[in-house]
Write a structure and sequence with these properties.
12 strands; 21 helices; 64% helix; 6-stranded mixed sheet
Length: 593
């Protein structure tokens, strides 16, 4: 069998060109195309009214003030008031509509990204930094959200304003229009110089933010280990280094982008001064009227304002593109390969067979080498060996968290790669060394084994797992809310809850991975009794349990350096006086892990 595909950091999608990222964002936005069209309609009304207002003002100066027509002036003031009122309504309504479009767009993007994470192989999560993934789901998408809220309308409005303003300016005075346009070449080359540098820094800023979030998440989760080993100064130093990277990239991104409004303001002032000077000369020579100059100064502001808005929004657009690229980077990773029309197991006997299986997490070093082992239906097999022997890897392969590079794994003589992972995993339950509990009630955590279970089913499972006694004594019983770390209950009690969850799932194959390590003797007896109930009639694979569980196994497979070196019952292996005998006599629990 050829080696399975590997996902390394370097194989992730490369950052895309800005236009590609914008096009992909548009595929989400376009799902609300009718709302977008309505939004743009109100944007157009807003722009048109903003262009009409200065024209009416100049007309009033030339025809009503200079010619002293108070009635006409009052009428025009009323008209201007209506223009500004409708303009305010159009401005508010376009923003209201755009907020709805943005939230729907980010909702869909976040849903797609979260769903994508569940289609990626375990190998990806072993290599990815969890805090960085969280940053993509939160910070990066929030950056895109803010830009869509603020920039989409601004971009369209600015382009429309530029075109409309230019038309009015040419109509009023082609000479003054040319004066205004003298700033455009300076603006173009200034923007080109600035944006060439800002995009790289915005991308680094998002990357460093993801790295920092990942490090914070890791250190908070491992805070007890940090304190036990007194590494506070070390982690603070590492944090300062990552924080400094974010500060540097953020500084240059904002510093370079900050040049844009300064550049625009400087050019605006120069343009205004030129218009005032040239306009004054033209007015003295009766080429233009005073009203035209007043109107033109308003339009010159309106001409440079959209340019200023475009420049400012371009900064936000660069940040949003950097965030969107990080989201699309995950979306572009190939899904975990899954068979479409595989076998659908309803009920299995639980016969397990590893036939000459080899596997490596890293191509340079094999973890499992030509391994063969088996378990008959209803049997309990134990897998023992020193740390790094490959015991946990066997479980990863059996559950298809990874696929073998060579060899075949079968259940009831069916190759497990010929069925879907969901079908396979429905037949298997875990009881692990460190049971994972979700934020929620004890009842919800047990029900995770079977979402269709009734409250009575949950209580019955808890009783079989010897968990009902301590649960009933809690102030809120089964409705007691637990944190992710299971705060408020002991490690042994968490383990009993996980056993109840496994019982509720009613699996055909059971995997026990050091389920009684680090448990006090009294609790261990309760757990052992619960495990005996759980294992009854099921094929069980026991990883490095304490000696009393291993002694009861139907068969023990002894591993060393990725290979099975011995197998047999506890007594027969002791009589061989081989590697198992050395483990047993060398303080078994200290050597097996």
């Amino acid at each position: 069998m050829p080696r399975g595909p590997r996902i390394h950091q370097a194989e992730r999608a490369e950052p895309q060109e800005p236009l590609l990222a914008i096009k992909r964002i548009w595929t989400y936005l376009s799902r609300s195309k009718w709302t977008i069209i309505l939004t743009l309609f109100f944007v157009s009304i807003d722009v048109i009214l903003r262009l009409v207002a200065p024209f009416l003002l100049g007309y009033a100066i030339d025809h009503f003030l200079i010619e002293t027509d108070p009635i006409g002036l009052i009428r025009l003031i009323i008209l201007l008031a209506l223009v500004y009122l409708v303009n305010a309504f159009a401005s508010w309504f376009q923003y209201f509509l755009m907020v709805g479009i943005t939230q729907k767009t980010i909702y869909r993007m976040r849903e797609d990204l979260f769903a994508k994470l569940h289609r990626l192989p375990i190998r990806f999560f072993d290599q990815a930094q969890h805090g960085d993934l969280m940053s993509r789901l939160t910070n990066d998408l929030e950056t895109v959200s803010q830009t869509l809220n603020d920039s989409v309308i601004q971009l369209f409005s600015s382009v429309l304003s530029l075109i409309g303003t230019l038309v009015f300016m040419i109509y009023l005075s082609p000479i003054l229009t040319l004066v205004t346009l003298t700033i455009v070449p300076f603006l173009y080359f200034g923007m080109k110089w600035i944006t060439k540098r800002t995009r790289a820094y915005f991308r680094k800023q998002q990357q460093h933010l993801g790295d920092l979030n990942g490090y914070i998440e890791e250190i908070i989760a491992g805070q007890s280990v940090v304190k036990i080993f007194s590494k506070e100064e070390r982690v603070i130093s590492d944090f300062e280094e990552k924080n400094a990277d974010l500060k540097t990239s953020g500084y240059y991104a904002q510093a370079y982008s900050g040049f844009i409004p300064k550049l625009m303001n400087g050019l605006n002032n120069i343009s205004f001064a030129l218009i005032a000077f040239v306009g004054g000369v033209l007015a003295l020579n009766d080429v233009v009227t005073v009203g035209v100059i007043v109107t033109f100064t308003q339009y010159s502001r309106q001409f440079t304002r959209p340019l200023n808005n475009l420049a400012n929004q371009f900064n936000h657009l660069l940040a949003a593109i950097a965030g969107a690229e990080r989201v699309f980077e995950i979306l572009d990773i190939p899904d975990e390969k899954e068979i479409v029309d595989g076998d659908h197991w309803q009920k299995i006997d639980g016969e397990i067979h590893f036939d000459h299986v080899s596997f490596a997490y890293d191509e340079d070093e094999d973890t499992i080498i030509d391994l063969s082992l088996y378990a008959n239906p209803g049997e309990t097999i134990a897998i023992v060996g020193p740390t790094g022997a490959g015991k946990t890897t066997i479980i990863n392969l059996l559950c298809r968290f990874y696929d073998p590079d060579e060899g075949v794994i079968t259940i009831d003589d069916c190759d497990i790669t010929n069925t879907t992972r969901e079908t396979l995993r429905k037949q298997i339950s875990f009881v692990l060394q460190d049971p994972f509990l979700f934020n929620g009630t004890i009842k919800e955590n047990i029900r995770y084994g079977d979402l269709n279970a009734t409250d009575q089913d949950i209580v019955n499972a808890a009783k079989l797992a010897n968990a009902d006694q301590f649960i009933s004594k809690l102030p809120n019983g089964y409705d007691t809310i637990l944190s992710q770390e299971g705060g408020g209950i002991s490690q042994g009690q968490k383990q009993l809850i996980s056993i109840a969850r496994a019982l509720l799932a009613d699996p055909n194959i059971l995997i026990l991975d050091e389920a009684t390590s680090s448990i006090d003797t009294v609790t261990e007896l309760k757990i052992q009794d619960a495990l005996s109930t759980l294992m009854k009639g099921r094929t069980s694979v026991v990883i490095a349990h304490r000696l009393n569980t291993i002694q009861q196994a139907d068969r023990i497979f002894v591993m060393k350096d990725g290979q099975v070196v011995e197998n047999g019952t506890h007594q027969s292996l002791l009589e061989k006086k081989g590697f198992y005998y050395e483990l047993y006599n060398g303080h078994f629990e200290d050597n097996v892990g």
